[in-house]
Amino acid sequence: MHVTVLREIPEGAALSGSWNRLVERMEHPEVFFTYQWALAASRAFRATLSPLLFLMHEGDELCGVAALAVPSEKPGSACFLTASTADYCDIVSAPDTRASVLTCLIREVANLKLRALTLASVPSDSLTCKELPVIARALRFHLRSRLAYECGLVEFGSQYQRQTIAHTVTHKSREQRGLKKLSKLGTVRLIHLTRPDETSSSLPQIVVAQVSRFFATNRISPLVGHERRVFLRELTSLVSVAEWLKISELQINGQPVAWNYGFRFGDSWFWYLPSFKIEYDTCSPGSCLLRLLVEEGCADPSLRWLDLGLGDESYKDRFATTTRTTRHIQLSRSLLQHALITCRQLVTTAATRFPNVADLVRRARHSIRSLSLRLHNDGPKSTITRVARRVVRLAASRDEVLFFEATAAGSGDRSNVRLEPMTWENLAKAGVENADDSDTLQYLMRAAARLKNEATEGFVLHDHAANAVHFLSVTNLQKFYAGEIDYTLNFGQSADALIFDCWTPPRYRGLGYYPLAISLATAELRKNASNVWIFCMATNTPSAKGILKAGFTYRFSLVRRRKLGLSTVVRQDKTTALISLSAGGTGSHPGSAVAGNSDRGFGRPELR
After folding, report:
1. Residue 603 banded pLDDT, cuts 50, 70, 90
2. Which of 217, 324, 378, 492 is most buried when burial is the number of CB atoms within 10 A of its CB?
3. How many helices and strands, by DSSP H and E, does the chain display?
4. pTM score, two decimals?
5. Based on the structure, what is the number of domains in the chain?
6. In degrees rounded to 5, what are phi and psi of residue 346?
7. Which domain holds residue 373?
C-alpha cells in the first residue's frame, strides 16, 4: 500500500467517484465522509485551514482517504478538515483494510514531523476507535480518547416498531398544540426541496432564521461568520447536484416558518440544521416539523433511521428511540503534551461534576482572555490605568446622567437614509454584516432580548447601500430603569417616549448617523407620544453633542454619588457638562453652568 499526500483537494470526477464508492463500503456510510463535503470545507476555510489529503492505494485502486488539515494557529498539528462542520468524522476505507490504512496514515504523520493529530467526532462504533490504540502504541504515539457527544436517533426498525413510533409522536401534546395554533393561522403544509435552484434560493432564509433565533436566546450563531456561510453555499451546490440534500419546509399558506437543512444519504435521513422564524416561537414550529418528518420516516421502508445529530437540546430526547456516541481522539508524539492533554481532560471531567466550580473556571478563563486581549490592543500602561480607575471607583465615585427633551427638528441630510422598525430579519442581517465586531454583536443580543418585550420597540437606520448604520430602542417613561446609575424612575402615567441604548457600529462612527437617527425617530414617535426624551452620561461628550444637534434641549440631571458602598441619587437642574458645547438650544453661555427647564410637569424621579 502506497500513500500520496496532497496539499489541496483535487477537483475532478475521477477522485470523487472512487472516494464516494469507498464511503459506501464503510460500516456506517455518512454524507460527512464524502468527497463533496471535504471539497466544500476546503473552499470555505482556506484562510484558516491548509488541507492535507492522504490517499492510500493498492496498485491503482484507492483503498483509503484521510482528509485532514493543518490549522493556521497550530502549524505543528493536524485535525479533520471537516471537524468544525461535520457531525461525524472518520478515516474512509473498507472495514477489512482499516488497520492498514490507519498504519500508513500514522507513519506519514510522523514523516511530516507533525507533533499531534486530533480526530474529533469519530463514531464510537467505527473500527477506527478499535484499531487505532494498538497502531498508535506500535508507532510510539501517545493516545488519549474520551467520550465526545451523544447523538439521538429515531430508529424505525420493524413494521410494528414503525407503527408504535408513529402513534407515539402523533399523540405528543406539545406538537399537537403547536400544529393546532399553526392551523389557525392558515393551511399547514410540509414540502421538500431537492433541486439545486430550490435549495439555493431557500438558503438565505434559513441563515436569517438561524441567526435571529440565536440572538433571541442570547447566543451568537456560527452562521454570522463569513466562512460558515461560504461553506453552506458551497455544500448546497455540491450535494444538491449529487441528490443528497433535502431541505424540508413547514409552510403556512405557502410561506415557510420552519426548515430542516438535512440530507438523505443511503438509508439515513439527517436532521442537520433546523431553524424557524422566531415570530412563531409560541407555536413550537421546529418541534412540529420534526414530528412530521418522523411520521414520514415511519412510512418509508427504505429508511433505517432519522439521525438527530449533535446537540443536547431537550426536544430531541422526546423523539429519540436510541442514541449513538462519538469519541474525541488525540494522538501526540510528546509525552509532555500527552500529559497536558490528560490533565486538561481530568479537569474538564471534574468540572462537569461540580457545576459551580465549572462556572467559576469559565469566568476566570474569560477574564484572563479579556485582560490578555486588552493588553495586546491597548498596551500595559493604558490597561493598568483603566484597572486603577475601576478600583478607585469602587471606593468613591460620582456619575451624572443628562436628560434632554426634543424641542426642535434636527439637522442633517435625510435623502440617502431610511429609518425602519427593528425586526428579527434586520437584526440577523446586521449580525452578518458585523460578524467580526464583538461589541456590536453584544448589542444585537441586547436588542433581541428587548424585541421579545412588547413594552419596548426599536429602530434601525439604513444608509443608501442598505447597511445598518445605527440602532436605537424606545420605551415608555413609566418606571424606566437606568442601568448607568442603577436607578429606577417613576413618572406616573406619563405618555412620553424615551429613546435609549443607541448604538452606531464603530466603522460608521463620525459620519453623523447618530443625530440623524434620533431626529428621524423623534419625528416618528411624536405621532403617538406627547413628548420625546433621551439621556446620556455627562462624560459622553460626543453623544451629548449629537443629541443637541438632533434638536433636543437639556432639562435636568440625575447624579449618583457612591462612597464606601453607600449610594445616593439626587436631581439637579443645572450641569457643567455642556459648557464646552455650543449653545444649540441649551440656553448655555461659555463659562457658566447650563440650566434646564424644570417647569414641564415632569415630576420628581423616585427611587425604586
Report:
1. very low
2. 324
3. 17, 25
4. 0.84
5. 4
6. -65, -40
7. 353-387
